[in-house]
Amino acid sequence: MTLDLVVTNLNTRDAPAPVAIGIAGGRIAAIEREIVCDAPVIDAGGRLGLPGFVDTHVHLDKACLLGRCGHAHGDLKAAIATVARLKADFTEEDVLARAGRCLDRAIAHGTTRMRTHVEVDPRAGLRSFRALKRARSDYAWGIDLELCVFPQEGLTNDPGCEELLVAALEEGADVLGGCPYTDTDPIAQLDRLFELAADYDVALDLHLDFDLDASTGHLEDVCRRTEAFGRGGRVAVGHVTKLSAMTPSAFERAAARLAGAGVALTALPATDLYLMGRDRFADRPRGVTPAHELARRGVTASIATNNVQNPFTPFGDLSLMRMANLYANVAQVGPDGFDACLDLVTDGPARLMNLDDYGLRVGAAADLVVLDAADAGEAFADIAAPLWGLKRGRRSFERPRAALNPPDA
Length: 409
Description:
By secondary structure, the protein is of the alpha/beta class. It is built from 13 helices and 15 strands. The chain has helices spanning 76-87, 92-108, 127-138, 161-170, 186-200, 219-228, 248-261, 269-275, 291-296, 320-330, 338-343, 347-352, 376-382; strands at 5-11, 19-24, 27-32, 41-51, 53-58, 111-119, 144-150, 175-178, 203-208, 235-239, 263-267, 301-303, 368-371, 386-391, 394-398. It has an 8-stranded parallel beta sheet with strand order 5-6-7-8-9-10-11-12. A 7-stranded mixed beta sheet has the order 3-2-1-4-13-14-15, with no helix packed on it. A hairpin with a 2-residue loop joins strand 2 and strand 3 (27-32). Helix 6 packs parallel to helix 7 (248-261). InterPro entries: Amidohydro_3, Metal-dep_hydrolase_composite, Metal_Hydrolase, Metallo-hydrolase_Enzymes. This is Amidohydrolase family protein. Residues 41-130, 154-374 form the Amidohydrolase domain. It comes from Methylopila henanensis. Pfam families: Amidohydro_3 (PF07969).
């Protein structure tokens, strides 16, 4: 066997003992207890290896805006309005620079696949989209970036927005998004988005129902259209914070409906925690959809970063290990659920994005992150630091372990 690289002494979530992974042509060619060949060798030292993390929902175009605006707003509506004022002045170079800061961090935290949502409307024009097309090319060495264009402030009520979305799809947008709850006619927006997605044969990824009133919502509207258009497995919804406020029986019905229609879901803990329940002083709700419970019921589910250092979420470091750990705290997941939470930043989002070359298996892309831990439980509890990673078999980042300097005895 001719190999380009061998990673030895690697612990995985599936194998009972350390394995060696042989890599050729950017793909995993062999997984054995031992591989002997002339290829260069990296000794993982008995640490845990995972397939690269997958971030299904990020907003690179409006990231890193701290210092450009105030953060004394009180709700989602004010955050949207603040960014709407700012984005009219975004330039391609500005968006590219801020996106680059985020992508640097994401790669260094072990993320190898990402879907970023991009606002396309008469205020932003196609500037942010074109900047992120450049970022997609510039950073292909370390991360695969999908671009999901969407109308943040409405579609039917925003003349010229649909034409810009179509132009972006013509220029190579990978996914079409939407935000029905900001539209004066949310049902008409859904109808048009499903039509456009079918016309251009792209997946749909929708911001949905970002409040805590469980008596109303558009989840059924999405499921019904997913079935009518035959798009099962190619539709996702993000936030859906109403699911966190449902009764157990209503939640079971919603989970069954999502699973049956083939609609995936992404929970966004940082933003949802920051914005939900701000009208209450006591007994403030968490507002985070229990994604691991949906996954247990057959729904394709993920956890993602969403906003980074902007009016929607004034913090963030693009670490999906930290995000999954935060989610587990919020959702009160104990050690017996740590593996399920890791699934929400690896296998689950890979299914959501229909990545057919993902995973630690022969034939998959050689995308790998090695964590400073021996096993999954330790890694998750510690929020273990990524030590190094591979993208298509090439070392994409590395960081030294912290060295302590106690005084001499």
